[in-house]
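Our preliminary data section would be incomplete without showing what the modeling component actually yields. Below, a chain of 456 amino acids is followed by its predicted structure, encoded as tokens that our downstream tools consume directly.
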Amino acid sequence: MKNIRHLYARAGFSLRFEDLDTLGKLSVKEAVAAVFRASENSDPTAIIAGNINYKDFLLANEGTKKMFLQEQRQQEKALNIDWVNKMSSTDAQLREKMTLFWHNHFACRTQNAWYAQQLNNIQRSNALGNFKTLLMEVSKTPAMLQFLNNQQNQKNHPNENFARELMELFTIGRGNYTEQDVKESARAFTGWSFKKDGSFAARPLQHDVGQKTFLGKTGNFAGEDIIDMLLAKKETALFICKKLYRYLVNDVPNNAHIGTMADIFYNGNYEIKPLLQYIFTADWFYTDNNMGNLIKAPVEFIVGLNRQFYITYQNPDVVLQFERALGQVLFNPPNVAGWPGGKNWIDSSSLMYRLKIPSTVLNGGVIEFSGKVDPEDEAFIATTRKQKEAVTTKIQAQADWAKFMNSIPRGTGKAAIAQTLLTAPLSTGITDIINKTTDIKALAIELVSTPEYQLC
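Predicted structure:
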């Protein structure tokens, strides 16, 4: 069961108690097949119905502009909350986990929520498909073309921003191209633009049709040719696989394992599914040094908590507050390189928030320690009860405790409950919590309020 828990921690966001009976009977190979089967279909987000007309915005008076901006903020918020809800409830955990990976790999900011939704859906539909298709479609989205200034990339006035990031961050990585390659590549992407309806437009009058020399080859290259040549370099497969290894396996790269991953990815024409199947069925994926060693990204932490305890938010703004406090607001990466991840997720401030959020959401900010109450503690208990009521009123979050408790298979011991909630091995401190806590609800809250819960 340890391997199945590990699989769901990495290929998804958590393993629920309700899944233990079914999954406990499966081999790793069967469980991996079940993970992929659940993620076969893509469920596109459609929370944003249409594009805000920015031409009207520019011509509007101040009062109308204010309304435009308010609508824009509401759309951004709605898109964020919708994705969190999707991740928190879907059976297609692997597809959403990989959508989150590509969301960071192709880090992009846009004030147009409709464009952001389009990009998110492209990443979702291709999350387990073909990387070349994904790369080509992402590169032609209004969100990315706008973010990396390719709208300004025209014949005789090339803008190098998109061409540079395409190589440095999306494909072969720094050190595998020259400044001249950037300049020549930028010329190939001149004229790449988009229409008002968000569809791609290649504008021939703005395109440089001259000869370009890129990565040692010369020709009248267009943008598609540049992408093909970048994918022909095995450095691209290595670059992607190293990032994926750090996302799914270990922050410390294992060059031998990454090399094998790159062989499969490159020789398989950049098909993502066979690469993931190899990772999840490899013996080394389930070794002790690769278990419970990754720090959960803030969104993974929030979503995992939501899934495990069936949490609903009457005040969705709370989720956005959590994201801001923990340093990962969906659709708003810090820069084009995305969130650095790993140990960068944790500092003294964010760790304090992480340890407090579970009790805040699940029990009004209170961790109830079990044991006999002394008379002098009664005043303290009364105070915490008032605090709990105040926090619950403010947060407006509700865990379905009845569903959680009923989902725990009959006869499950406290240690097994702890091991399901925590993927890391049980430490002495966790064992002490298990031994002293008799109430299952109090035990669950205390366990998810530990540093160990921050790991997957």
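Residues 77 and 231 are 36 Å apart (CA to CA). The beta strands are 192-194, 200-202, 212-214, 217-219, 312-313, 397-398. Preliminary results of this kind motivate Aim 1 of the renewal.
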